[in-house]
Amino acid sequence: MLKLYYAPGTCALATHIALEEAGAPYEAVRVDFGSQAQRSLEYLAINPKGRVPALVTERGTLTETPSLLLFVAQHFPAAELAPLADPFALAQVQEFNSYLCSTVHVAHAHGRRGTRWADDAAAIEAMKRKVPATMMECAELIERKFLKGPWVMGEQYTVCDPYLFTIGSWLEGDGVDTTKLSGILEHRRRMLARAAVQKAVSAEGTHVP
Amino acid sequence: MLKLYYAPGTCALATHIALEEAGAPYEAVRVDFGSQAQRSLEYLAINPKGRVPALVTERGTLTETPSLLLFVAQHFPAAELAPLADPFALAQVQEFNSYLCSTVHVAHAHGRRGTRWADDAAAIEAMKRKVPATMMECAELIERKFLKGPWVMGEQYTVCDPYLFTIGSWLEGDGVDTTKLSGILEHRRRMLARAAVQKAVSAEGTHVP
């Protein structure tokens, strides 16, 4: 059985939702960030990056959300969570998810984990100050160029949707005025109406604005 | 015909090499970063992110290196640039490439493009100071946990290899002492012996340490 290591408020929620959407047999294991359990020797043996998510499969452990989402879509093809037979469309899915992991998630992380990139307290404060602007810029680009509606890729619900939902739920906490982001807010409402989303959100105890 | 927009010294080299490895018909178009051509209206119409690479296909434009690499592997399956029939192994490829784009490339970018994340000059200097340490940490993790040898995924050469080669060629410029990184240096030498790598490197005029 698959085992998903997660912590509430992290991007692990995207994979958690995807597993629910797929009807996958899995166990969700909470990693206690409060006690820094992600840095324990026990957890580092599972994921040497000391982060979540990590998905333990019968063939080994996978990390990185875009990889986990592709794996869930391919491992449970009946759930039709990605356009697996169409290389261009599948590349569009990976393009969107890569943008979320390499640009949007990174912009967000500068508000909370600035010590990754600088040791100086004033620099870390300077990073925090820019987060509302960088996150707004990302959200606007997503609305203008990528979110086709009703789902990210258009008519087909894909693994892009739980990932956008997850990172999109951080916007208010990042100081972004989401009243201007009607596309993302509508997408969020649509997501919250899905049973799989409700189940994962409730299991994690995640706050969605 | 595919059209790859690139600039020398950027991660576009990974896709450039992959296209050569695939024997793909393509045209490489240089974007002049010196004159800020990536921010011109003409280029923003191609890629609204204002970055390279961008790959123009007959069905539209794709961005983000992990997506482009997957597309090349899937579009030219005879080149066997990814374990396409094995969801777990393919997820491992995406895991590695996601790590490069979301963590390693981002660590590197703090030395050159700190204005993405802070407006304060002192903060940008503080970011630069940390780059040698963060890049070394990434390189060590790659050697310890991911680079199986002789190629990233083991016996099969995949799209992970041009991507590691590309980002690995930035290490010296980032202040990392690569004499301690024998795995990455051997991988670099192995890559430089391939005709496809030589052709892409020479076409771009890229300096590889």
Summarize the structure.
Chain A is an alpha+beta fold and 209 residues long. Chain A has helices at residues 12-22, 41-46, 65-75, 87-109, 121-146, 160-168, 182-192, 195-204; strands at residues 2-6, 26-30, 54-57, 60-63. Chain A is 51% helix and 9% strand.
Give an overview in words.
Two copies of one chain form a homodimer. Chain A is α+β, with helices and mostly antiparallel strands and about 210 residues long. Chain A contains eight helices and four strands, in the order E-H-E-H-E-E-H-H-H-H-H-H. Chain A has helices at about 10-20, 40-45, 65-75, 85-110, 120-145, 160-170, 180-190, 195-205, and strands spanning about 1-5, 25-30, 55, 60-65. Chain A has a four-stranded mixed beta sheet with strand order 2-1-3-4, covered by helices on one side. The longest helix of chain A has 26 residues, at about 120-145. Chain A starts with a strand and ends in a 5-residue tail after the last helix. At the A-B interface, strand 4, helix 3, helix 4 and helix 5 of A face strand 4, helix 3, helix 4 and helix 5 of B.
Annotation, overall tally of beta strands of chain A: 4
Question: SSE string of chain A, helix = H, strand = E?
Answer: EHEHEEHHHHHH
Structural class of chain A: alpha+beta
Largest sheet of chain A: 4 strands, mixed
Oligomeric state of the chains in view: homodimer
| Rg for CA atoms of chain A | 17 Å
Strand content of chain A: 5-15%
Shape designation of chain A: globular
Helix content of chain A: 40-55%
Q: Count the helices of chain A. How many? A: 8
Low-confidence stretches of chain A: none
Provide mean pLDDT of chain A, rounded: 97
Pair of chains with the largest interface and how many residues each contributes? A-B, 47 and 47 residues
The separation of the N and C termini of chain A measures 32 Å
Biggest sheet strand order of chain A reads: 2-1-3-4
